[in-house]
């Protein structure tokens, strides 16, 4: 750490960022005389995975510091802390043990959190101030919220005349542009603006506009265009008359039928098809109007018009730009007006359902706390942080940063009781900023990085120079290529980044291999549509075979793509070649044959008269059971009644299954169906995730089968399970998903997109409200026409091009730096055209230029591929990236809910007499979780008696209840010493969620599930245990019994 209050770490890929964060965080803990100094530290990052990794690192190091000798993986930080603090080995170890214990017992104050979680906490404290309901829910599924608003909006059509006209106009404009008339799809697309923080301020301003305001703007722009076209037409007609007076004809001008004069004629007919950068317009202005061998009297006639022609050319260029700019804006007016209506519908849903979509967090906070003094915010939070760590700062949006400034500046500019000021540590790498589409701003990081001070205080810039991830050749290639690429960037700021913040030093890891392949283009028709079938899949397959021949496993290989369609093309091909693949498609829940069979059954039961649904079930059934005579089976069963078909499938259980969803709760019926269809015979994480979806949906108000099936249709395309390392499967993922990861071998195909390519780019432009009916900002699509727009619009376009270039180079940088040992890059060999504009170069062409100018590469040239290689083809590391999944054994630990050291927050809760019944239930739950057998009861009673937070009469009630519970008259059978017990052992689901049964009794592979409840018996209590049972069955356990123990009345409910 440095002595400056603010430290900026530039952390390029593989530079040990997490190690540095953990080291500096731990150093702060040991510099304090208190063992709970973590309460004064807030560390924020962007993903739950990053939070878990950081917390794990801190706890692991603290635990290791208490060992003798200190393990190697913690020794470097241990010695660093010794040097900074002056503590000797023994004192440091003792302090580490104390801090570790305090952290575990005060875990809720261990504030390493996602930035969204922290914002949520602040938002809760200000809910009343901003008119949010006290119990508001955070809506994470924003697409479902927006889709519901779209349906509500469309439902108003026919009754609301103004809205109906907008929808009709929108549909007609789509038809005119040869697009589908379906407005719902386009509304969903334009609604993406709502979720993107970059558009927040603009949309807030639009909310104040009425339908009439939008109509006036459209009329105003159309009127302006009519005037501009008339003006050009009059200029053109005047020139034509003057040319006639000079006896001139169109053929007299240079270019003949494509001459300047032909452009003038077109303009006189209001035809503005000639783009101002074409030769004829340039000739207008340059004055190159006739051929050298033209007759003299014709030259004299044209020379007489030279000034008029030049004036016309200048006027044409300027007027063309204004007209096209206005036409561009006009096209966006109806969609924006509809978006305004949509935002109104969303607000109604938010109010009705008491939800706040997560995309609104930053904006709501900004409006609330920007004028609040920091002490007031701290008072609301109940915490005052003195030290701030912000990870991945290049991904921090402007609003997120501005919302934290009051708190951070207060910490830095004030001192605590010990006379010390706060600190700020920012870590990031603008080269890895690839989330601009969701609000991140690399310019913010670069701007702060270049400042000498922050909050009027000294700032220290530190660069993590070494790449600890990759081997020497991989590092050197990335150093050299991206410096070369940086020279092609239009922005001086971005050029400076790749010139001065790129180079990394190598470590002792010598060697490594890079191969760049340029594939023959003869069999592939070049097109802007890069989703066409390409030569990449067979080439990638050959690369995989070559890599495996070196001793690597499939799990060591990761293929990185820009688009899901590319990953899908590769996955389909590789699977046909018997290569096991883990990709986004394979991880989709709906890709599971078990899930598909279960869903088709649910659809058929819901609408038994629909023959198509019966066919859908039969098709999934024959595939799941590998029935060879598919046609014969389907033909013989398709015309059976539902009951007769169920008799074939379920035999004696046909009647039960026919009425399952009519009689039982949704989750229970789904679980029962899955069991009857024999879907639990093998572990399937996707089936487990599907059942979890049913379970969560069952907590809603409307849990009918019909509503769930509608919910499933909305969810199925995105619901997936996380990938787990598999040594026998190649991973395919998008570059965005790969950020923060590393792989022994990385293949990057499809590396030939244009360096300025952008999909339907749009942006906002500032305008003079007096000239545009009170609108300060207008929304426009970005195309090359913008080069002729008014200056402010041209600036928006040029800035967009610069940022797009940055997006592309950063994406490549992230992809290429994931490789540890070997990197393979594949491009289509696109020859450069004569006088090709550098801004239109493809990445493959840049790579070719780079490699052609280098002498240190081997080159192989065949009919199919031109290949450049550097390094030696051999596996260097003995480690394997893919790891086989392991089943957790039945091991025992002290309960994670041990209350040996209560947080001080609990004291505040206990002080309330109103809470007594709740407290008793919670405390009883805490203490019973510490009892594995009757032998543990005396020790727990002693703990209760020593608990200063509990009143005497409540202590006695707890002790009496525990004694009764574990007595022979009640539940002693569940607490016998010979039983194998797991108390509050978490079950982690594929998507990272954790479920914790209170007590499991395990005998071989047979389990009894026990949960403790207070209050009335509720159906959801049974559902909860039923879901636990499904999770355990997925782990290949057999369920013996499910037991609910109601502690108020000491009653048990048993079923299986």
Automatic annotation (TrEMBL):
Its EC number is 5.6.2.4. InterPro entries: DNA_helicase_UvrD-like_C, DNA_helicase_UvrD/REP, P-loop_NTPase, PDDEXK-like_dom_sf, UvrD-like_ATP-bd. GO terms for molecular function: 3'-5' DNA helicase activity; ATP binding; ATP hydrolysis activity; DNA binding; exonuclease activity. GO terms for cellular component: cytosol. Residues 1-471 form the UvrD-like helicase ATP-binding domain. PROSITE patterns: UVRD_HELICASE_ATP_BIND (PS51198), UVRD_HELICASE_CTER (PS51217). Keywords: ATP-binding, DNA damage, DNA repair, DNA-binding, Exonuclease, Helicase, Hydrolase, Isomerase, Nuclease, Nucleotide-binding. GO terms for biological process: recombinational repair. Residues 483-740 form the UvrD-like helicase C-terminal domain. This is DNA 3'-5' helicase. It comes from Nonlabens arenilitoris.
């Amino acid at each position: 750490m440095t002595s400056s209050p603010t430290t900026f770490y530039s952390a390029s890929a593989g530079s040990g960022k997490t190690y540095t964060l953990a080291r500096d965080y731990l150093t702060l803990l040991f510099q304090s005389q208190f063992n709970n100094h973590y309460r004064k530290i807030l560390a924020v990052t962007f993903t739950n995975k990053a939070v878990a990794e950081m917390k794990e690192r801190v706890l692991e190091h603290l635990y290791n510091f208490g060992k003798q000798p200190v393990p190697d993986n913690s020794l470097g930080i241990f010695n660093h802390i010794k040097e900074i603090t002056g503590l000797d080995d023994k004192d440091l170890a003792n302090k580490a043990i104390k801090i570790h214990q305090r952290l575990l017992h005060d875990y809720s104050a261990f504030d390493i959190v996602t930035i969204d979680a922290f914002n949520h906490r602040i938002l809760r404290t200000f809910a009343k101030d901003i008119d949010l309901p006290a119990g508001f829910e955070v809506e994470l599924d924003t697409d479902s919220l927006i889709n519901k608003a779209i349906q509500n909006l469309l439902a108003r059509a026919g009754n609301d005349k103004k809205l109906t006209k907008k929808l009709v106009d929108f549909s007609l404009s789509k038809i005119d542009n040869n697009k589908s008339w379906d407005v719902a799809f386009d509304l969903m697309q334009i609604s993406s603006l709502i979720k993107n923080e970059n558009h927040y301020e603009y949309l807030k301003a639009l909310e104040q506009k009425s339908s009439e305001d939008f109509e006036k703007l459209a009329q105003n722009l159309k009127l302006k265009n009519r005037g501009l076209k008339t003006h050009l037409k009059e200029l053109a007609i005047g020139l034509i008359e003057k040319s006639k007076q000079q006896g001139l004809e169109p053929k007299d001008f240079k270019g003949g039928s494509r001459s300047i004069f032909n452009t003038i004629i077109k303009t006189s007919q209001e035809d503005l098809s000639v783009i101002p950068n074409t030769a004829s317009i340039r000739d207008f202005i340059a004055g190159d109007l006739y051929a050298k061998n033209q007759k003299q009297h014709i030259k004299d006639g044209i020379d007489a018009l030279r000034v008029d022609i030049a004036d016309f050319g200048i006027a044409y260029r300027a007027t063309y730009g204004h007209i096209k700019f206005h036409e561009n804006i006009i096209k966006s007016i109806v969609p924006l007006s509809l978006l305004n209506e949509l935002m109104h519908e969303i607000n109604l849903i938010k109010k009705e359902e008491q939800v706040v979509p997560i995309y609104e967090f930053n904006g709501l906070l900004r409006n609330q706390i920007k004028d609040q003094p920091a002490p007031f915010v701290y008072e609301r939070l109940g915490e005052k942080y003195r030290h701030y760590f912000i990870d991945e700062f290049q991904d921090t949006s402007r609003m997120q940063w501005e919302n934290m400034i009051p708190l951070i500046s207060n910490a830095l500019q004030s001192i605590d009781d010990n006379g010390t000021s706060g600190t700020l540590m920012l870590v990031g790498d603008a080269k890895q900023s690839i989330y601009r589409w969701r609000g991140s701003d690399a310019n913010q990081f670069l701007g702060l990085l270049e400042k000498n001070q922050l909050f009027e205080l000294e700032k220290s810039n530190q660069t993590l120079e070494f790449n600890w991830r990759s081997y020497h050749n991989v590092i050197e290639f990335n150093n050299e290529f991206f410096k070369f690429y940086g020279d092609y960037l239009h922005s001086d700021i971005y050029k400076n980044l790749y010139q001065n913040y790129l180079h990394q030093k190598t470590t002792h890891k010598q060697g490594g291999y890079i191969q760049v392949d340029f594939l023959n283009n003869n069999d592939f028709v070049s097109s802007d549509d890069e989703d066409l079938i390409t030569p990449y899949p067979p080439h990638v397959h050959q690369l995989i075979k070559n890599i495996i021949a070196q001793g690597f496993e499939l799990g060591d290989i990761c293929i990185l793509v820009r688009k899901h369609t590319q990953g899908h093309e590769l996955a389909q091909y590789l699977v046909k070649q018997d290569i096991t693949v883990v990709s986004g498609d394979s991880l989709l829940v709906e890709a599971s044959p078990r899930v598909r069979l279960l869903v088709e059954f649910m659809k058929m039961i819901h609408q038994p008269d629909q023959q198509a649904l019966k066919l859908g079930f039969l098709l999934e059934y024959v595939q799941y059971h590998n029935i060879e005579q598919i046609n014969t089976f389907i033909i013989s069963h398709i015309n059976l009644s539902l009951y007769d078909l169920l008799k074939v499938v379920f035999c004696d259980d046909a009647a039960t299954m026919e009425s399952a969803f009519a009689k039982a709760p949704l989750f229970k019926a789904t679980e029962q169906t899955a069991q009857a269809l024999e879907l639990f015979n093998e572990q399937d994480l996707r089936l487990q995730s599907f059942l979890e979806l049913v379970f969560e949906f069952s907590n809603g108000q409307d849990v009918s089968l019909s509503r769930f099936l509608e919910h499933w249709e909305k969810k199925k395309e995105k619901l997936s399970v996380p990938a787990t390392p598999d040594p026998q499967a190649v991973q395919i993922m998008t570059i965005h998903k790969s950020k923060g990861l590393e792989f022994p071998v990385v293949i990057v195909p499809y590396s030939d997109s244009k360096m300025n390519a952008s999909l339907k780019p749009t942006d906002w432009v500032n305008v003079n409200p007096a000239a545009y009916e009170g609108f300060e900002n207008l929304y426009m699509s970005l195309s090359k026409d913008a080069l002729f727009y008014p200056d402010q619009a041209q600036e928006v376009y040029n800035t967009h091009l610069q940022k797009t270039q940055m997006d592309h180079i950063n994406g490549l940088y992230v992809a290429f730096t994931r490789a540890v040992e070997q990197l393979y890059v594949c491009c289509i060999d696109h020859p450069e055209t004569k006088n090709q504009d550098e801004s239109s170069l493809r990445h493959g062409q840049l790579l070719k230029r780079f490699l052609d100018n280098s002498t240190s590469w081997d080159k192989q040239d065949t009919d199919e591929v031109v290949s450049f290689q550097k390094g030696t083809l051999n596996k260097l590391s003995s480690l394997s990236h893919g790891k086989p999944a392991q089943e957790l054994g039945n091991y025992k630990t002290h309960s994670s809910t041990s209350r040996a050291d209560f947080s001080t927050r609990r004291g505040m809760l206990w002080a309330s007499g109103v809470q007594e019944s709740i407290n008793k239930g919670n405390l009883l739950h805490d203490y019973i979780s510490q009892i594995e057998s009757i032998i543990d009861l005396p020790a727990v009673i002693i703990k209760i008696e020593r608990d200063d937070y509990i009143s005497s009469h409540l202590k006695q009630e707890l002790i009496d209840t525990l004694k009764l519970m574990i007595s022979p008259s009640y539940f002693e059978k569940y607490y016998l010493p010979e039983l194998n017990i797991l108390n509050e052992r978490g079950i982690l689901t594929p998507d990272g969620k954790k479920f914790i049964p209170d007590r499991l009794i395990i005998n071989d592979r047979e389990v009894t599930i026990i949960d403790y409840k207070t209050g009335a018996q509720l159906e959801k209590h049974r559902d909860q245990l039923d879901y636990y049972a499904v999770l355990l069955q997925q782990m290949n356990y057999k369920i013996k019994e499910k037991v609910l123990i109601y502690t108020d009345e000491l009653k048990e409910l048993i079923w299986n």
